[in-house]
Amino acid sequence: MIVLKNIEKIYRTETVETIALHGIDLEIEEGEFVSIMGPSGCGKSTLLNIMGLLDEPSAGYVHIEGTRIDSYSDRSLATLRNHQIGFVFQSFHLIPDLNILDNVMLPLIYRKTSTKERRERARTALERVGLQSRLHHFPHQLSGGQQQRVAIARAIVGSPRILLTDEPTGNLDSQMGGEIMKILQSLKSDSGTTVVMVTHDEEKAEQTDRVVRIFDGRLVA
Amino acid sequence: MIRQMLVLIWNRKRINALIMLEITLSFLVLFAVVVSALYAWKKYSTPLGFDYRDTLSVVLIGQWEPHHAGQLKRAAEAMRTMPEVSWCEASHMDLFTKSYWTTVLRHNDKPTQLMVNRASDQYHQLARIPVIDGRWFGPQDTGGDYEPLVLNRRAAQKVFGSESPLGKVLPHSLGKFNYKVVGIIEDYRQHGDLDPLGEYGFRRYVWEENSDTRMRQLMVRLKPGTPRSIERDMLKILKTNLPDYDFSISELSVARESYMRKSLIPLITSAMLAVCLLLMVAMGLLGVLWQNVAQRTQEIGLRRAIGASTTGVLVQISGELLTMTAFSVAIGTFLALQVPFTGLFGNIEADLMVGGITGATSVMLVLAFVCSVYPAWLAMRITPADALHYE
Ligand SMILES: Nc1ncnc2c1ncn2[C@@H]1O[C@H](COP(=O)(O)OP(=O)(O)O)[C@@H](O)[C@H]1O
Ligand SMILES: [Mg+2]
């Protein structure tokens, strides 16, 4: 499903050179729920961004569904992100000036679908996260947990095979965090979605199929 | 995509209203500048309607008395005998100065103000003023119950509209007598190249022995290449025939240039002010538009993360701004179209309105396009991962 081969990521600024990832080899199976753990700054987000084709590795290759990603400026990358991958960020990244329904529909406007179908699918996705009654609210009218559920609905509205989440519970209290975990688990069990979750919460990590640990940009066994 | 674009514009109405206000104001400033520039250019590129070359103006300085008319007539006749002189005629108004003389013509109760001059029967030949319809006045107008009048095309149009002006009779503004229109000329722009394109008329000056009609200027067309030393001989003839006067002789081509230089100063000053104003407006607008897009770097990152292509984002961002610009320009155009009705700036001709609106609209659209596409493109040169963390 997702294969990372010898991934390096080096951030260069004028004065310093940070090696964020070093020689990462990782395979994630279809339908697996994997958590990535490690202390702050160890490279978890960087790794997830590279998996999600949001960032380009300095060396090494990413394979998604058996295809090797060669070019990071290609338009086909946009299609791949749109159809195969859903992303959930720690800080939600909802568009404040669009209501919940429009926010969730966002990935679909980059596909050839009718407005009616977009609405239907957005509604279904919002039902799935338990927010069917809040369609016309704006993000600032929702709690943090609700906003994160909207972000999950947006990530799954296009039925991606892969869901990448970067500390989805990091900004939430433990009860809301628990709800988010339940949703992610149901996605894996109901739709067979591959879920990768970055977290530094040991308890949450234990609820997943496999824990991948990183320290200082390297995988630790 | 389009629906969502409009939804976004609407939901951001508070900030967008400010942006649109800024665009509308810039549009109006630009409109004013373009119209003024076009108007200046139009004035400059319109022919004067007469030939000022090789011509001297002789202004009489002194107190007019009726018997001076005969003296003036003989002075003119004497000048015509000089071999260097091809024409010598009378024309009352100075060329290339600020002075003017106006009257009001009433036709069907509609008054029209125009500048007038008074000139002798051959003056159109001296000044090479083409008569485009009818004729210049002449001896056949003597003894009639009217005074002949030659109008420029603009005046004829303004007074009579689509009616044919020739032969039309108009009362003098104080009702002393009637004018009859005998001819139409293209133009006589007495203030020179930057003269507003106005209405103009010539009344007839008749050479007589005694006249209450004061005439203050003789025009002399010289054979090309005549040296200025001829002025001494001319002065002698003038002094002999018109002993009560002093004379001021000037070359029209010199007068034209010095008047032009004088009129250019305010024009250049206002052009410089306009450029400063435009720069300020452009900077303000650029800042506002630029910031609007730069603030959306995170949004751009997000859109790309969920699968928007680079072109998709560019189309969306510039589409939003172009839609707003189109709205603002429509409002601006509506306001600009009201300007002629305020009467504040006189009657702005249709071609200037069209030029001003077209010019200002295209500049605003180009500016909006560049100000959205360029910063959006900059925001897309960084990876979506970086864009999402951009503050
Ligand atoms: N855009 C960037 N430019 C420079 N350094 C970066 C950038 N993004 C991350 N880093 C550095 O790379 C390392 C890994 O960062 P990150 O993947 O965000 O860690 P984590 O998500 O595990 O907290 C850190 O040292 C961080 O400072
Ligand atoms: Mg992180």
From TrEMBL, chain A:
SMART domains: AAA
Record flagged with keyword Nucleotide-binding: yes
Domain ABC transporter stretches: 2-220
One of the record's GO cellular component terms: membrane protein complex
Single GO MF annotation: ATP binding
Keyword ATP-binding: yes
Alphabetic keyword roster: ATP-binding, Nucleotide-binding, Transport
SUPFAM superfamilies the record matches: P-loop containing nucleoside triphosphate hydrolases (SSF52540)
Family: Belongs to the ABC transporter superfamily. Macrolide exporter (TC 3.A.1.122) family.
Protein name according to UniProt: ABC transporter ATP-binding protein
Native species: Sulfidibacter corallicola
Automatic annotation (TrEMBL), chain B:
InterPro entries: ABC3_permease_C, MacB_PCD, Macrolide_Exporter_MacB
Molecular function (Gene Ontology), one example: transmembrane transporter activity
Transmembrane parts of this sequence: 21-41, 264-290, 311-337, 357-379
Membrane topology classification: Multi-pass membrane protein
Residues of the MacB-like periplasmic core domain: 37-226
Residues annotated as domain ABC3 transporter permease C-terminal: 272-384
Key words of the record: Cell membrane, Membrane, Transmembrane, Transmembrane helix
Compartments (UniProt record): Cell membrane
Pfam family, one: MacB_PCD
Cellular component terms (Gene Ontology): plasma membrane
PANTHER family the record matches: ABC TRANSPORTER PERMEASE YTRF, MEMBRANE COMPONENT OF TRANSPORTER-RELATED
Family: Belongs to the ABC-4 integral membrane protein family.
Listed name of the protein: ABC transporter permease
Source organism: Sulfidibacter corallicola
